[in-house]
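Service request form, structural biology core

Requester: graduate student, group of Dr. S.
Request type: structure prediction, single chain
Budget code: on file
Notes: please return the result as structure tokens.

Sequence provided:
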Amino acid sequence: MARPYLSVLIRQLVINRANGYCEYCYVPSSFVPDTFPLDHIKAYSLGGLSEPENLAQSCTPCNGHKYNKTSHFDPLTNQETPLFHPRKDYWPDHFKWSEDYTIIIGKTPKGRATVELLDVNREANINLRKLLIMAELHPPKSYPET
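Core staff response, request fulfilled:
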């Protein structure tokens, strides 16, 4: 089944709303060589619509790890839980930064499941965060509102 066309207007709305970051791991799009795909929060293959409320800016690794999943197991409780939803959930409610701002820590079952499934603390992200801290460009100053 072919995906419906996403207008330039919708693409720009999603990109602007994300303030230049992956809405999951907060890697800034201006510091990676790849363009960021738009993630269908509920996958198109599972009936998710190509509307702004179901779209998030996502880096390629987070998008690939998530694929069409909407839930994962919380590593602390081993209970299946919904993943972080960038349109319905506020990032600081579910995640926090480590003291040195290099690691994302899940504060809730949803946060922990998302951290694990999307591997948001992969080595490349940690290394990039360290460099951005030295350049005084990390952590992000704000997070998109839901």
